[in-house]
Amino acid sequence: MKSGKSWLKARISNLKFEKPESERERLDRIKAEVLAADAEAPSGKTSRRSFLSKLGIGATLLAIAGQVYAHLRSLKPNVLYEEPRRFKVGAPDQFGEGGKFLEDKRLFVFRQGKTFYAISASCTHLGCTVKMQKLNQPKRVKARGREFDEQYEFHCPCHGSKYYGDGTNYAGPAPRPLDYFKLEVAPDDGQLVVDMSQSVGQDFRLTV
Ligand code: FES
User: Fold this and answer.
1) Is the N end or the C end of the chain the one with fewer CB atoms within 10 Å?
2) 126 lines ligand 1 (CB under 6 A)
3) Which residue's CA lies nearest to atom 3 of ligand 1?
4) Rounded CA gap, 109 and 118, in Å?
């Protein structure tokens, strides 16, 4: 018969002291379980690992495509749809004597008998649209070294600039006369054509 001491020793040596699982060990165990589950996944079915892998590749490709698109887009200039600067304004007989204001073009087209000319309605100060003022009676004025009787003037409502009937500035902050634009006759249908890309002198006249 064993003594009490030796019996106690034997019991202690048989006891298993399990160490608590560390965080690192826990992660390793989970990883091993996932890999084992993937390995056991039936063929033909997408495993979790390959699914995540495909998802990662897809996201990378998407990011690259975005970068390429942004680069290509930066090479292409933004399109500006500007109004054409050369356009038809109608047949000569559609214009009566005196001035006609073409609001959408901010332009005056004048007729004196068989001659025509076009004056910009854009104030040379800051670009407001000037108004044509019909005078109650002709006014004798001197501009550009010559005297003439004028029937109308141009006044700017923004800061008070004033222009004689020939477009010469004489009051307010406007720094220079109103622009004159080239006028010609369209060869196909005889309409008047204004070319706002070409400024001409104040003496320009188109005879039809
Ligand atoms: S914009 Fe015409 S006077 Fe200033």
Assistant:
1) N
2) yes
3) 159
4) 4
Q: pTM of this prediction? A: 0.62
- What does the domain layout of the chain look like in residue ranges? 20-75, 86-207
Classify 86-207 by CATH class. Answer: mainly beta
3-class secondary-structure state, position 79? coil
Give the separation between CA 53 and CA 184, rounded to whole angstroms: 71
pLDDT in tens, 135-178: 999 999 998 888 989 999 999 999 999 999 999 999 999 999 99
| Closest atom of ligand 1 to CA, residue 172 | 3
- Please tell me if the CB atom of residue 169 comes closer than 6 angstroms to any atom of ligand 1: no
12 CA to centre of ligand 1 in angstroms: 107
Place of tokens 């020793």: 9
Q: Residue of the nearest CA to atom 1 in ligand 1?
A: 126
Sole residue written with tokens 């992660």? 27
- Ligand 1 contact via 121 beta carbon (within 6 Å): no
The helix-helix angle for 48-75 and 23-40 (nearest 10°) equals: 90
Q: Give the pLDDT confidence of 24-63 residue by residue, as tens digits.
A: 777 787 778 767 766 665 555 555 666 666 666 777 788 7
